[in-house]
Amino acid sequence: DTAVSQTPKYLVTQMGNDKSIKCEQNLGHDTMYWYKQDSKKFLKIMFSYNNKELIINETVPNRFSPKSPDKAHLNLHINSLELGDSAVYFCASSQTGTGNRGYTFGSGTRLTVV
Amino acid sequence: TQLLEQSPQFLSIQEGENLTVYCNSSSVFSSLQWYRQEPGEGPVLLVTVVTGGEVKKLKRLTFQFGDARKDSSLHITAAQPGDTGLYLCAGDGGATNKLIFGTGTLLAVQP
Predict the structure, then answer these.
(1) In this predicted model, what pLDDT tens digit does every residue of B25-82 receive, in sequence order?
(2) Do the Cβ atoms of A31 and B43 come within 8 Å?
(3) Which of A12, A41, A57, B79 is 20 to 30 A from B58 (CA-CA)?
(4) A94 and B45 in contact by Cβ < 8 A?
(5) Contacts of B8 in chain A (CB under 8 A)
(6) Minimal Cα distance from B102: which residue of A?
C-alpha cells in the first residue's frame, strides 16, 4: 500500500498545453509539498500546504497552481507549459510536531515538454 | 538564503572501500536529515540528527551533525554496490517547516 502516490509517472506534452499531476498520501500527515528536481538533481521546494492551507509559495510562475481539496490530496496544475518546465516533480508529506519531521516522498512525475 | 553544499558531487569507488560525504552551510539548522534516492524513485529518509555533535549509526553508515549545527557528514564503511545512489542532505530551518536540500552526491560502487 503506497504511502505517497502521484500520477502520472510520466507525462509528455507539447508546449502551450495545460496538464495536472495528482498526489495522495495515506499516512495521515497534515502537511504536503511539491518539489521540482532539475536535470542536475537539485530539489527545490515549490509549494507547501498544511491542513489544506497554503503556507509556502516559493518563487514559482503563476502558471503553476496547487490545489488541496483535503489534507490527503495535493494536486498541481500547470498552464501554458514551457520547455523549461521539463523536470521531475515530487510530492511529499510530513507531520508537524513530530521529532524528526522526516518527509515521505512519492516516486515522482517526469514531465517532458516538447 | 540558506544553502547546503555537498562534496564531492560525484564519487565512484570499488566495493569494500570507505567514503565520506560532506554537507556544509553557513546557516544554522534545527535539524538535518540525510536521504538516499535511487533512479526513478523519490528520496528515502535515512536519518535525522538534531543535537550539535550528535553521531548516529545505521549499520555501515555513520552520520554526524556539526557542533554548530551548520554542517554534517556521512561516512560509509566497506561500501557495497547496494549503496549506489544519490545522497542528499536536507536542513530544517524550523520556522516554516521547509526542508532545504543540498546539492547532492552521486555515489557509484563498482563490484
Answers:
(1) 999 998 999 999 999 999 999 999 999 999 999 999 999 999 999 999 999 999 999 9
(2) no
(3) A41
(4) no
(5) none
(6) A42
